[in-house]
């Protein structure tokens, strides 16, 4: 899968498994109720916007569209407004700061009212 459009679906969260879609170069999750983005989303390097793709007679840049998610807390709106590079920088910074990442994971769990499974949790 290369393009995934999930806009206008009233989504509150995206599954961490979305980070396994390594061929994904366009992800649109605009106009939802997302509260956070998966913390490993930065690993989808094709979303970074540095590549250009051709499809039929069109050429377009890779893109991550997260606008109009009024409840988005992680990353903050100001970061998301700066675009994909700023979002990826923020998520990479968390990857290199395990204490801060764990704090945000706990905050997300509280926000969602349940425990999330992440790569930092032990699988049963």
UniProtKB/TrEMBL annotation:
Keywords: Leucine-rich repeat, Repeat. GO terms for cellular component: cytoplasm. InterPro entries: LRR_dom_sf, LRR_domain-containing. This is Uncharacterized protein. It comes from Ridgeia piscesae (Tubeworm).
